[in-house]
């Protein structure tokens, strides 16, 4: 069995991102390790920054860290994180929370394939897609 776990890097604001995503998804921070706690000594200006963290929400994990000084972090490109939501009210709540301070690129709406779907770039530059397929006939 495989599990794809996104690992997101940020330029010094990983803790803010981690706490924002925790609130959006009503998640749980499982691990926070800081550069200063690492046995590998490096740039002391990073000591309070996050070298590794794990956020759990539902059956999902996202790992988040601050990049090394001088390491380029770029959120432009072809990667979007897609979240499948199983409740029509929850998708609106989560989408709206994630959109705060960001940019909605496709408003949440019923789509031709039958799902409620929307896209946005959050205030940290990460691209997201949200999808709710609706209730299935039993």
Q: How do the strands and helices of this protein lay out in sequence?
A:
Layout (H helix, E strand, L loop, with lengths): L6 E4 L3 H12 L2 E7 L15 E8 L2 E7 L14 E4 L3 H12 L3 E8 L5 E6 L5 E6 L6
Parallel strand pairs: 1-4, 5-8
Antiparallel strand pairs: 2-3, 3-4, 6-7, 7-8
Helix pairs in contact: 1-2
Could you tell me the number of beta strands? 8
Number of helices: 2
The string of secondary-structure elements, in order, is EHEEEEHEEE
Low-confidence stretches: none
Main features:
alpha/beta, single chain
Question: Quick recap of the structure?
Answer:
The protein is α/β, with parallel strands linked by helices and 138 residues long.
């Amino acid at each position: 069995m495989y599990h794809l776990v996104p690992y997101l890097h940020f330029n010094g604001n990983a803790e803010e991102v981690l706490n924002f995503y925790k609130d959006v998804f009503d998640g749980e921070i499982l691990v926070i390790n800081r550069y200063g706690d690492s046995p590998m000594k490096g740039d002391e200006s990073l000591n309070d920054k996050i070298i590794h963290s794990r956020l759990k929400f539902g059956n999902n994990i996202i790992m988040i860290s601050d990049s090394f000084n001088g390491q380029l972090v770029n959120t432009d490109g072809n990667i979007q994180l897609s979240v499948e939501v199983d409740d029509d009210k929850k998708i609106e709540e989560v989408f709206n929370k994630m959109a705060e301070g960001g940019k909605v690129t496709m408003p949440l709406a019923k789509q031709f394939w039958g799902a409620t779907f929307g896209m946005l770039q959050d205030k940290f530059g990460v691209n997201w897609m949200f999808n709710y397929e609706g209730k299935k006939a039993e």
